[in-house]
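Support request, please re-run this one:
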Amino acid sequence: MLRAARDGGTPLLLSWDVHHVPVCATTQLELDRLLRGGASAPLAVIARRQTRGHGQAGRLWCSPPGGVWLSAALPWPEQPQGSASLALAVAVGLALQLEPLGLRPQIKWPNDLLLEGRKLAGMLPRLRWRGDRILGAQVGLGINGCNRVPPEGISLAQALACRQPAPGPSRRHHPQARPERLAARVLRALEWAVAAAGAPELVRRQAQRRLWLPPGPVRHRGELWQVLGLNADGSLALGQGQRRDALHRHF
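Re-run finished. Output below.
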């Protein structure tokens, strides 16, 4: 069992097989290679740097040293009925790991975690299927630690007032923003997601409390709708007068 001793946290609960790579195109490609070679969940690949990291809709995700760039294979309930939304479960797990640091993360549906209105983390979750049965879950995750970020982003170091009194490059960032400590929190967040996989209403309630709401209506099927909240399946509940609809995440 891999233990999170380096960050002074509690031991990890799953028997993780963690592969660290200095640089790769994407951790998802490395994860797929390991799975094809016979590796099994719980499995994670963590890169110091990615050269072709991507987010939702293939958008470039800058992945320099200092962040946590990870892809993981997770056990998940075989039956989709009664299982939680993978995306929401991972987002809530991350939020629960960050809140003890005095932060107030918000979930921006469907893929992002925000701090102070700026993007801290992004997720690309997907389920692996065989027929109508779920074989397992996979998630790609990038979270800014003490790396440089674009103006619309924020790093954990910035959020924690990163500069420390002691000089020297190894001590200039808040300790909890350093990749090795942040990675341990991410793995514990994924463990929370696995533990909550069979409790969709718990996950929905936890995500609802942290949901970032857009300042105005959203466009759906050519019309403007108000965001009402979250459904248990992870979709966004929409309202237009007495009408109701849902916006679903496209994997």
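The helical segments are 27-36, 86-98, 156-159, 179-195, 200-209. Confidence is low (pLDDT under 50) at residues 1-8, 165-170.
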